[in-house]
Amino acid sequence: EIVMTQTPLSSPVTLGQPASISCRSSQGLVHSDGGTYLSWLQQRPGQPPRLLLYKISNRFSGVPDRFSGSGAGTEFTLKISRVEAEDVGVYYCMQATQFPWTFGQGTTVEIK
Amino acid sequence: EVQLVESGGGLVQPGGSLRLSCVASGFTFSDYWMTWVRQAPGKRLEWVANIKHDGSEKFCVDSLKGRFTISRDNAKSSVYLQMNNLRAEDTALYYCARAPYPGVRPYSLFYWGRGTLVGVSS
Question: Which backbone phi and psi does A31 adopt, to 5 degrees?
Answer without folding.
Answer: -75, 165
